[in-house]
Structure formats: structure tokens, C-alpha cells
């Protein structure tokens, strides 16, 4: 059964895959598109805790912790004790620092390609995303789910 937004998720996965292929063609197969933002944050801002990195990215601690773990396995970051021994800081490795300029170029190229794509559409995804945020701010997903979550309102074709 396909969900209403499955085509959007397929497009996003395809874009991510093509970004990762760009790195592979440049001999950077360890790089994943989800590493770009934390790697650039660390390259520009220096070492931080996972909590600070997550807050700066607007992501959950759990998601960033998993990404940092994958980046560690790829040899791009390491964690070290911070000034407070209870907190571990995320540091770029030499390999991560060396990769940062390529990631920065990819980020800028991706932004330009996405802008070009968005401009070619009949309706801008940037505009639609802003409208979605506004609609969810006035009535959140939880409230919408609760309104539809009963046997009498759910049909297999919805």
C-alpha cells in the first residue's frame, strides 16, 4: 500500500543517492549526505557536544548521536572528554577536516541545483513547505491524527 507522500520520499531518497554518488566518483565513498551539515558545523564552529550539535542543527539528540556514530565509523570524527568529564565533545579527524572543503562545495552545488529545480516547478516546494509549517503550527499532526483515528473514520483507500 502506497502512502500519499511516498512519491515525495522516493524523490528525496533519489536526490540523497545522487549526492552520495558524487562523493563516490570523487573517491570519498565514506561520505553520506546526512554527514554534511554536522561536518560543516564542526568545521566552522569547532568541537561541540552532541547536545550542542543537535540543538544547532534543529535535530534530536538521538538522531545526531546516531549520525555522529556513523561518522566515527567512517573516520570523519572522534569524541573526546570535554572540560566537564561527563560530556564528550565531537571533533573532526584529519580526514574530516580534509573533506570539509569538498563538502562545502557540494552543499553550495546542491543548494544551487535545488533552487534551479524548485524554479522549474509549477508550484515551489519551498513555498509549499512554508505553507505546511504554517498549517501545522495552527493545527499540529497529533491533533489531526486524533481526529482521524477511529474505526468509523478510517477506510483502506485513505
Task: Tell me what you see in this structure.
- The chain has 158 residues and is mainly alpha-helical.
- It folds into two domains: 6-120, Orthogonal Bundle (Arc Repressor Mutant, subunit A); 123-158, no CATH class.
- Helix content is 63%, strand content 8%.
- It has a three-stranded antiparallel β-sheet with strand order 1-3-2.
- β2 (77-81) and β3 (88-92) form a beta hairpin.
- α3 (50-57) packs across α4 (61-73).
- It starts with 5 loop residues before the first helix and ends in a 10-residue tail after the last helix.
Query: Rg to the nearest angstrom?
Result: 19 Å
Element-level helix/strand string: HHEHHEEHHH
Shape: globular
The strand order across the widest sheet is 1-3-2
Number of strands: 3
State the domain count: 2
Going by helix content, strand content and strand pairing, the class is mainly alpha
CATH superfamily of the largest domain: Winged helix-like DNA-binding domain superfamily/Winged helix DNA-binding domain
Q: How many DSSP H or I helices?
A: 7
What is the level 1 CATH name of the largest domain? Mainly Alpha
Low-confidence stretches: none
Give the termini separation. 11 Å
Mean pLDDT over all positions: 92
> Helix content range of the residues, please?
55-70%
Strand content: 5-15%
Reported for the largest beta sheet, the result is: 3 strands, antiparallel
Amino acid at each position: 500500500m502506497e502512502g500519499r507522500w511516498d512519491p515525495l520520499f522516493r524523490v528525496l531518497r533519489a536526490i540523497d543517492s545522487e549526492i552520495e554518488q558524487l562523493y563516490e566518483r570523487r573517491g570519498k565513498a565514506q561520505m553520506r549526505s546526512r554527514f554534511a551539515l554536522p561536518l560543516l558545523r564542526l568545521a566552522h564552529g569547532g568541537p561541540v557536544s552532541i547536545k550542542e550539535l543537535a540543538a544547532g542543527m534543529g535535530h534530536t539528540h538521538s538522531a545526531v548521536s546516531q549520525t555522529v556514530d556513523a561518522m566515527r565509523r567512517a573516520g570523519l570524527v572522534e569524541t573526546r572528554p570535554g572540560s566537564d568529564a561527563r560530556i564528550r565533545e565531537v571533533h573532526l579527524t584529519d580526514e574530516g577536516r580534509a573533506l570539509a572543503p569538498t563538502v562545502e562545495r557540494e552543499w553550495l552545488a546542491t543548494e544551487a541545483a535545488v533552487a534551479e529545480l524548485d524554479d522549474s516547478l509549477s508550484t515551489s516546494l519551498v513555498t509549499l513547505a512554508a505553507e505546511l509549517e504554517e498549517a501545522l503550527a495552527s493545527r499540529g499532526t497529533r491533533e489531526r491524527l486524533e481526529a482521524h483515528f477511529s474505526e468509523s473514520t478510517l477506510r483502506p483507500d485513505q
